[in-house]
Amino acid sequence: MLQSSEYSYGANGVRSSSPASNPNSYNPVKTTTAPIEQATIGRTLIIKGEIIGAEALYIDGRIEGKITLTDNRVTIGRNGVVQADINAREVVVMGKVTGNIECSDRVDIRSEGVVNGNVSTTRISVEDGAILKGGIQVKSGEQKQQSAPKPQEKSVEAPKASVPEAPKAMAATASA
Protein backbone atom coordinates (compact mmCIF):
# COMPACT_ATOMS: atom_id res chain seq x y z
CA MET A 1 0.00 0.00 0.00
CA LEU A 2 1.30 3.49 -0.88
CA GLN A 3 1.48 6.14 1.76
CA SER A 4 2.41 9.73 1.24
CA SER A 5 5.76 10.57 2.63
CA GLU A 6 6.13 13.52 4.97
CA TYR A 7 9.86 13.48 4.39
CA SER A 8 11.90 14.54 1.40
CA TYR A 9 14.76 12.60 -0.07
CA GLY A 10 17.98 14.25 -1.11
CA ALA A 11 19.90 13.67 -4.35
CA ASN A 12 21.81 10.77 -2.83
CA GLY A 13 18.61 9.02 -1.68
CA VAL A 14 19.13 9.78 2.00
CA ARG A 15 15.96 10.55 3.87
CA SER A 16 15.85 14.04 5.38
CA SER A 17 14.06 14.73 8.64
CA SER A 18 12.52 18.01 7.36
CA PRO A 19 9.04 17.80 5.84
CA ALA A 20 8.76 17.95 2.07
CA SER A 21 7.95 21.37 0.66
CA ASN A 22 4.64 21.64 -1.12
CA PRO A 23 4.94 23.65 -4.35
CA ASN A 24 1.21 24.43 -4.21
CA SER A 25 1.26 25.97 -0.74
CA TYR A 26 0.27 29.64 -0.46
CA ASN A 27 2.64 31.97 1.32
CA PRO A 28 1.03 35.42 1.63
CA VAL A 29 3.21 38.43 1.04
CA LYS A 30 3.72 40.36 4.24
CA THR A 31 3.46 44.11 3.95
CA THR A 32 5.77 46.34 5.89
CA THR A 33 3.62 49.49 5.76
CA ALA A 34 1.33 50.27 8.62
CA PRO A 35 -2.40 50.40 7.93
CA ILE A 36 -4.01 53.83 7.69
CA GLU A 37 -5.20 54.91 11.10
CA GLN A 38 -8.83 55.95 10.94
CA ALA A 39 -11.29 56.61 13.72
CA THR A 40 -14.87 55.49 13.08
CA ILE A 41 -18.09 56.87 14.49
CA GLY A 42 -20.64 54.10 14.09
CA ARG A 43 -24.28 54.27 13.02
CA THR A 44 -25.76 54.35 16.49
CA LEU A 45 -23.43 57.01 17.92
CA ILE A 46 -24.48 60.62 18.43
CA ILE A 47 -21.81 63.16 19.34
CA LYS A 48 -22.56 66.75 20.34
CA GLY A 49 -19.56 69.03 20.71
CA GLU A 50 -16.18 69.66 19.13
CA ILE A 51 -14.04 66.97 17.51
CA ILE A 52 -10.31 67.71 17.19
CA GLY A 53 -7.73 65.13 16.17
CA ALA A 54 -4.73 64.04 14.16
CA GLU A 55 -6.08 61.02 12.27
CA ALA A 56 -8.62 60.32 9.57
CA LEU A 57 -12.27 60.13 10.62
CA TYR A 58 -15.13 58.07 9.16
CA ILE A 59 -18.58 59.17 10.28
CA ASP A 60 -21.55 56.84 9.91
CA GLY A 61 -23.43 58.27 12.90
CA ARG A 62 -24.60 61.75 13.86
CA ILE A 63 -22.38 64.74 14.74
CA GLU A 64 -23.51 68.14 15.99
CA GLY A 65 -20.91 70.84 16.66
CA LYS A 66 -17.54 71.40 15.02
CA ILE A 67 -15.00 69.07 13.37
CA THR A 68 -11.34 70.18 13.12
CA LEU A 69 -8.91 67.71 11.52
CA THR A 70 -6.77 70.16 9.53
CA ASP A 71 -4.19 67.65 8.28
CA ASN A 72 -6.48 64.68 7.73
CA ARG A 73 -9.44 63.27 5.86
CA VAL A 74 -13.06 63.33 7.02
CA THR A 75 -15.46 60.89 5.35
CA ILE A 76 -19.18 61.12 5.94
CA GLY A 77 -20.61 57.68 5.18
CA ARG A 78 -24.00 56.92 3.61
CA ASN A 79 -25.68 56.83 7.03
CA GLY A 80 -23.76 59.83 8.38
CA VAL A 81 -25.56 63.04 9.37
CA VAL A 82 -23.35 66.00 10.25
CA GLN A 83 -24.63 69.34 11.53
CA ALA A 84 -21.26 71.00 11.97
CA ASP A 85 -18.62 73.16 10.37
CA ILE A 86 -15.82 70.96 9.03
CA ASN A 87 -12.17 72.02 8.73
CA ALA A 88 -9.98 69.28 7.19
CA ARG A 89 -7.43 68.53 4.48
CA GLU A 90 -9.88 66.37 2.51
CA VAL A 91 -13.64 65.80 2.89
CA VAL A 92 -15.67 63.04 1.23
CA VAL A 93 -19.45 63.32 1.53
CA MET A 94 -21.70 60.32 0.96
CA GLY A 95 -24.24 61.27 3.63
CA LYS A 96 -25.71 64.61 4.75
CA VAL A 97 -23.79 67.70 5.88
CA THR A 98 -25.36 70.90 7.16
CA GLY A 99 -22.62 73.46 7.79
CA ASN A 100 -19.64 75.08 6.13
CA ILE A 101 -16.72 73.02 4.80
CA GLU A 102 -13.20 74.50 4.83
CA CYS A 103 -10.76 72.22 3.02
CA SER A 104 -7.05 72.68 2.30
CA ASP A 105 -6.98 70.05 -0.47
CA ARG A 106 -10.23 68.67 -1.88
CA VAL A 107 -13.93 68.15 -1.33
CA ASP A 108 -15.58 65.15 -2.96
CA ILE A 109 -19.40 65.03 -2.92
CA ARG A 110 -20.55 61.61 -4.09
CA SER A 111 -23.81 60.90 -5.92
CA GLU A 112 -25.76 60.17 -2.71
CA GLY A 113 -24.21 63.11 -0.81
CA VAL A 114 -26.04 66.25 0.35
CA VAL A 115 -24.30 69.47 1.45
CA ASN A 116 -26.16 72.51 2.79
CA GLY A 117 -23.55 75.19 3.40
CA ASN A 118 -20.62 77.04 1.92
CA VAL A 119 -17.58 75.15 0.60
CA SER A 120 -14.07 76.62 0.47
CA THR A 121 -11.40 74.38 -1.07
CA THR A 122 -8.58 74.06 -3.60
CA ARG A 123 -10.26 71.25 -5.58
CA ILE A 124 -13.87 70.07 -5.68
CA SER A 125 -15.66 67.13 -7.25
CA VAL A 126 -19.46 66.86 -7.36
CA GLU A 127 -20.88 63.66 -8.86
CA ASP A 128 -24.17 63.45 -10.77
CA GLY A 129 -27.05 63.14 -8.34
CA ALA A 130 -25.27 64.97 -5.50
CA ILE A 131 -26.99 67.96 -3.90
CA LEU A 132 -25.08 71.12 -3.03
CA LYS A 133 -26.91 74.15 -1.65
CA GLY A 134 -24.55 76.99 -0.83
CA GLY A 135 -21.60 78.94 -2.13
CA ILE A 136 -18.37 77.54 -3.50
CA GLN A 137 -15.00 79.25 -3.19
CA VAL A 138 -12.20 77.53 -5.08
CA LYS A 139 -8.81 78.76 -3.89
CA SER A 140 -5.72 78.59 -6.07
CA GLY A 141 -2.71 76.52 -5.05
CA GLU A 142 -0.82 79.76 -4.27
CA GLN A 143 -3.50 80.83 -1.79
CA LYS A 144 -3.21 77.46 -0.12
CA GLN A 145 0.56 77.80 0.34
CA GLN A 146 0.58 81.45 1.39
CA SER A 147 -1.70 82.38 4.24
CA ALA A 148 -1.20 86.13 3.65
CA PRO A 149 0.13 87.71 0.45
CA LYS A 150 3.19 89.96 0.66
CA PRO A 151 2.54 93.73 0.58
CA GLN A 152 4.69 94.08 -2.57
CA GLU A 153 2.44 91.66 -4.45
CA LYS A 154 -0.66 93.73 -3.60
CA SER A 155 0.80 96.91 -5.07
CA VAL A 156 1.85 95.09 -8.26
CA GLU A 157 -1.55 93.47 -8.80
CA ALA A 158 -3.64 96.59 -8.14
CA PRO A 159 -2.53 98.60 -11.25
CA LYS A 160 -3.01 95.57 -13.51
CA ALA A 161 -6.63 95.17 -12.40
CA SER A 162 -7.46 98.88 -12.83
CA VAL A 163 -6.03 99.21 -16.37
CA PRO A 164 -8.55 96.90 -18.14
CA GLU A 165 -11.49 98.45 -16.25
CA ALA A 166 -10.79 102.00 -17.48
CA PRO A 167 -11.65 101.27 -21.15
CA LYS A 168 -14.86 99.55 -20.04
CA ALA A 169 -15.89 102.63 -18.06
CA MET A 170 -15.10 104.88 -21.04
CA ALA A 171 -17.06 102.62 -23.38
CA ALA A 172 -20.05 102.74 -21.04
CA THR A 173 -20.02 106.57 -20.92
CA ALA A 174 -19.41 106.89 -24.65
CA SER A 175 -22.44 104.77 -25.55
CA ALA A 176 -24.73 106.69 -23.18
Keywords:
176 residues, alpha/beta, 12-stranded parallel β-sheet, two-stranded antiparallel ribbon
Q: How would you characterize this protein structure?
A:
The protein has helices spanning 141-145, 151-175; strands at 7-9, 15-19, 38-41, 46-52, 56-59, 62-76, 81-93, 96-98, 101-109, 114-116, 119-121, 123-126, 131-133, 136-138. It has 176 residues and is α/β, with parallel strands linked by helices. Strands 3, 4, 5, 6, 7, 8, 9, 10, 11, 12, 13 and 14 form a twelve-stranded parallel beta sheet that branches. It has a two-stranded antiparallel ribbon with strand order 1-2. β1 and β2 (15-19) form a beta hairpin. The longest helix has 25 residues, at 151-175. Mean pLDDT is 77; it is low at 147-176.
SSE inventory with pairings:
Blueprint: E1 7-9, E2 15-19, E3 38-41, E4 46-52, E5 56-59, E6 62-76, E7 81-93, E8 96-98, E9 101-109, E10 114-116, E11 119-121, E12 123-126, E13 131-133, E14 136-138, H1 141-145, H2 151-175
Parallel strand pairs: 3-5, 4-6, 5-6, 6-7, 7-8, 7-9, 8-10, 9-11, 9-12, 10-13, 11-14
Antiparallel strand pairs: 1-2
Taken in chain order, the helices and strands follow as: EEEEEEEEEEEEEEHH
Oligomer, anyone? single chain
Distance between the termini: 112 Å
User: Which strand-content bin applies to the residues?
Assistant: 35-45%
Mean of all residue-level pLDDT scores: 77
Rg: 29 Å
- Low-pLDDT stretches are 147-176
Let me know the number of strands: 14
Tell me the major beta sheet. Answer: 12 strands, parallel
Q: How many alpha or pi helices?
A: 2
Shape descriptor: globular
Portion in helices: 10-25%
- Return the structural class: alpha/beta
